[in-house]
Amino acid sequence: MLEEKIFDIDESTDLIILPEMFTTGFSMKAEQFAEPMNLTTTRWMKQMAAQTGAVITGSVIIKEGENYYNRLLWVTPEGEVDTYDKRHLFRMAKENDVYAEGTKRLIKTIKGWKICPLICYDLRFPVWSRNVNLDYDLLIYVANWPQVRMYPWDSLLVARAIENQSYVVGVNRVGEDGNGFPHSGNSAVIDFTGKVLFREIDNEVIHHHTLDRSSLDEFRQRFPAYLDADSFVIG
User: Fold this and answer.
1) What's the gap between Cα 19 and its chain centre?
2) Which of 44, 98, 120, 222 is most exposed, with minimal Cβ within 10 Å?
3) How far apart are alpha carbons 187 and 123 in whole angstroms?
4) Is residue 71 a contact partner of residue 2, using CB atoms and an 8 Å limit?
5) H/E/C letters for each residue in 1-65?
6) Which residues are part of the catalytic machinery?
7) Among candidates 154, 118, 138, 156, which has minimal Cα distance to 19?
């Protein structure tokens, strides 16, 4: 079913974004659902990327050595795979007891656009998301963010866009999860001024959006607030 939806996506698409743990839903049953790198899901994503000609990304449960990771896979049409492991693990669900945290961000380039993908709870931590020296042009959050906390989700997506002078895309799941928590989606595209360009509530949706690079560059040149940002080092 997911394959059919992907194949229906516009042929001009450069990047396809799937939610957090898109094969299982948000789960602490890592022992049951984890897979090693370069097996089922990785191979499927390589196939989808090759057939659509688009980069495809989303997070899955991966076992590597003795550790489990909530790992975002970034798969190109050429079959190259890069990864980002979720940095901030949601302790209220004991995610930090099950998974190992990531230590490095991932920034990739598509047609001159620098893109930084992060995962769900990372959204709450502005230092980790900080766009130092315009490291990126598009900030992505893939998520399983429940309906009960939609106000922070909506608000923080806008805040991250404004403070980082970047486009922000939040891709969240819908429906009820295995623990009975409803999810309303609220997937969104936010521009660099904080304007909501798209938001979908309560419905499963495939949305195709074209970002305007010239508007971003013009705004950054006219209002270069990033030049006055505080310097810091993440320990």
Assistant:
1) 7
2) 222
3) 13
4) no
5) CHHHHHHCCCCCCCEEECCCCCCCCCCCCHHHHCECCCCHHHHHHHHHHHHHCCEEEEEEEEEEC
6) 20, 86, 120
7) 118
Per residue in 46-65, pLDDT (tens digit) is: 999 999 999 999 999 999 99
| 16/203 Cα distance (integer angstroms) | 18
Amino acid, res. 76: T
DSSP string, 164-223: HTSEEEEEE-EEE-TTS-EEEEEEEEE-TTS-EEEEEESS---------HHHHHHHHHHS
Least confident of 44-48, 109-113, 178-182, 183-187: 178-182
Residue 235: what pLDDT? 66
The count of C-alpha atoms lying within 13 angstroms of the C-alpha of 133, restricted to the half-sphere facing its C-beta, is: 2
Is the CB of residue 72 less than 8 Å from the CB of residue 142?
yes
Mean pLDDT along residues 171-196: 95
- Amino acid identity of 204? E
End-to-end Cα separation, the chain, in angstroms: 43
Tokens of 146: 């429940």
Amino acid at 222: R
Please report how many Cα atoms fall inside a 13 Å half-sphere around the Cα of residue 72, on the Cβ side.
Answer: 32
3-state helix, strand, coil in the chain (%, to 5): 30, 30, 40
Of residues 202, 183, 180, 187, the one with CA closest to residue 141: 187
